## 1
Amino acid sequence: MKLDAKIPAGPLAEKWDRHRFELKLVNPANKRKFRIIMVGTGLAGGAGAASLAELGYQVDAFTYHDSPRRAHSIAAQGGINAAKNYQNDGDSVWRLFYDTVKGGDFRAREANVHRLALVSRNIIDQCVAQGVPFARDYGGLLDNRSFGGAQVSRTFYARGQTGQQLLLGCYQALERQVGAGRVRMHVRKEILDVVVEGGRARGVVTRDLVTGKIETFAGDAVVLATGGYSNVFYLSTNAKACNVTATWRAYKRGAGFANPCFTQIHPTCIPVADEAASKTTLMSESLRNDGRVWVPARKGDTRPPHQIPEAERDYYLERRYPSFGNLAPRDIASRAAKMVCDEGRGVGPTGRGVYLDFADAVKRVGKQVVSSKYGNLFDMYANITGEDPYSVPMRIYPAPHYTMGGLWVDYNLMTTVPGLYAAGEANFSDHGANRLGASALMQGLADGYFILPYTVGDFLAKEGPSKVAADADCFRAAAKEAEDRTKRLMSIGGKRSPDHFHIRLGKVMWEKCGMARNKAGLEQALREIPAIREEFWRDLRIPGSGADLNQTLEKAGRVADYLEFAELMCRDALVREESCGGHFREEYQTDEGEAVRNDRDFAHVAVWEHAGDGAAPALHKEPLVFENVQLATRSYK
Amino acid sequence: MSAKLDLKLHVWRQKGPGDAGRFETHEMKGVSDHISFLEMMDVLNEALIAGGKEPVAFEHDCREGICGTCSMVINGEPHGPLKATTTCQLHMRHFKSGDEIWVEPWRARAFPVMKDLVVDRNAFDRIVQNGGFISANTGSAPDGNALPVPKTDADLAFEAAACIGCGACVAACPNGSAMLFVAAKASHLNHLPQGQPERAARVLGMLDQADAELFGNCTNHYECGAACPKEIPVRVIAELNRDYAKAALAVEEPRAAGGGDG
């Protein structure tokens, strides 16, 4: 596998402009002759499909939902970063670039991150033009707030539903193109495979979730914008259907998978209260702007929070990180919470929780102001826990939330398979080992609105049409494989449901490959996962038929892929013998419990190549070269 | 402290669009009051699978009350008894032991049942295709602060934009009307300066499509407003009617026709 990142030459600030000039263009009249397959319709996929169709390309867009508006981008609460410097507080493209590289613990590509910071400004303009109702001040101008890991106010927001409003903006742009006949929208169709032939991506194999029919679709380029794999942990903040299937299938067809062990555990989620819990719910970390995180100073202190005097509380983030305090980045805040709970100072019925207290904010600005900023989040919390966060501090605990790893892509967002692209959370490119708050929405929309439309065109201009029809041999063979696999799942005839196996896998991953990892634990996980997988293929039960709407079958297919993928994730965590960002290896820490990075041996992207089922995958390395920032120990003290 | 509930559940089962459908009764013992309504359905489905029976098909995804996927009529009310709450955010502590609970799909002519509690809501997408947008091709936007929006307008737009497209309004309406959904989209975009050029075409286009999808007419029952999990105010319907009157009277208003020249 050859890893050519295709980073343009020249000074960092000029790379993207220079590259855009060097990219080949498709004549406007020829664009309609090309068909692009867009898998996923969240921020990256929806924005990409709409923008490519506006340019004149024919687009086939796919979602397993009933409508493109349901994609999980919708659940993002807090905001979207952009280097507008509207607040005059010293922000700039360079500062956003620097913060993102540093926030990612120096494990991201400089050139990609700089481009992201550059186009962040266009994203806000585009969204405003579409009618996205961002928060505004009384003069009618756009409002900003600060967000985890940043000391400037560069986050644009729409109350606690920024993701929803951004997604509706790109959903409407997409539906406009559907109405115009330039996008064929395929709802309730799930991707089961990517078809690669003659060294180029040719299309996809899908299952119609209503009829069970396996179908094939051919295109001149294929884009996977299929999100992340946090649900490998079973309990995560992701929507229930989020899965690794499309990117995993692409990996098995030759696309390199980068840094699978880089996962983000979000510090502010509602602790799980019952074993039948099906997910963890995120509380936007914007809450950390006004909420103060604390636990009792003394171990085993079970008094209710209001009876614990100030002197006997430990505001541990403010104590350990005085300059960032409660706004410390996610990986650091999560680990600090784990540490105090491990010490026996956790709160709530399970002891796995810390307080997020708004008493000071209510005293300072009044309940009404707090409510206007966070009202819907407070309501959501009250709904789920039955407690009133205005009078009792919230209880929070970290939970899996986002995955920085994903398909390896070059500067053009193309995977190692020519013609196959990955965008948004599905690729690995911009967040390194830890993503900063309000950067996921930015990256998804940057990829979709402002990068794919140029880079896909360059590929099409150079390589021309694919000329392989959807009934060609390679498609028939891939469809047969998908059909056989579905039949095999249906015919196991065991006793256990897909969730049974998923929950067991999740426990292994959370304990051995979660917030803290070590060699012995990872090696044990690598023994346990194949055992669960073997049992899955022996004892799975799927009632009903494969020829109609069968949600158990859908789940089973996704769990089957997680059971394979989990192994790669542990393997990656095992060989990365350093602590960086969200990847914390217990063997590599300071006496105070801070992460110890190893730039000499691990300043690289780990890219895995599939070598056949049962064979050990091959590890390739893309060295990360830092010409513009100095590698430093990340300090938020 | 957690309590355990014993419940009698009557769930709508329907094999497909052509099947007449019927209620199926399940006794649920020892349901934790900490879990959500959908998690209670998960518990039921796990039990059905363990017994070799087909689980109840129902739609859900984010389980955070924002994606708009979940859709159950619980004891006759879309999304159940709690005000401003989606089914996924309804927790079992709002029920008591011994309760009988009836669970049905959205029922409306424009939302045909596909299986059990799953209905087809694509009509909403087609309404949006017919004007529910602002035509702003990627790359053509001026600076975000070039056009200030008075805060009162921004807030009114936002209130309407909070619609999650779940369809509870249609399920609650005795006429199966989509008026609240259509009006929310129109109000969101029509309160913004960016939405003015296509204002008339938007209203005419979306209402035409709602008629074509066989949604009923609005006769001001306002059941929609009571059922809406996002509390979209019914004032948006009055706004839509005013906009419709103006647009219909204007001569040769252009109709929304998708994308223009891309």
## 2
Amino acid sequence: MKKQITRISKEKEYEEYVNKKVPKPAYLKNSLWAFLVGGIICTIAQFILNILRNSGLNKTDANTVTVIIMVFLGAFLTGLGIYDKITQKAGAGAIVPISGFANSIVSPAMEFKREGYVLGIGAKLFSVAGPVLVYGFGSSVILGLLYYFFTR
Amino acid sequence: MDYIKAFVIGGLICVIGQLLMDGTKLTPAHILVAFVTSGAILGALGIYEPIVEFGGTGATIPLTGFGYSLAKGAIDSVKKAGILGAFTGGIESTAGGVAAAVVFGYIMAVIFNPKSKK
């Protein structure tokens, strides 16, 4: 019993020590970078959307094509090794847009290519996208069902 | 004008993600899951719609927009097709983006090799 108590207090001490040593993130600087890069990515998307709209696509189709183009750009720049450099600087500014979702698909798949085309690329494509789709699709079905049962 | 709106709204949504990453121990994967789920919930509650109206791609391109179109698709389909729509609507409305992500992701992963980190 006594042993356990000392262990817990040791762990607490260690945690305090670690918290003291871990550098405080530069909140303001990181946020400014995220704002700037996230904003620029969305502005590029708006530019693409406006071109598509002017060429006569309806609103829904134009949005879908914009997403597809942004996904392509994110995947392509990840292949070239450029997107990861942007992410290092911009953090969430590059992770949160849909191009970052594409980045999270290509990066691990590329990394695990040597494990084969099925269990390497095929499986690792979904190491981050999998959870996103599980929770995304899952919540859409639940919300649809809630809508069906409570508003009709 | 819509460029400035997209820039500001998109930037602000990314700042929320950055503050979550710096302030908590959440990994990027956790952030993406949280953003999709909260986008879906905000979309279903009708809170995200006005943000999309105002911010354009600033609201649709961040992953919260992905969640928003999932929820919107599911609810719109329920209105048309009843309970089956809850299962088909969300995936239908995001099919283009998801298929593109899988196909382009696969192609890029096959073509390119990881760059050695310096």
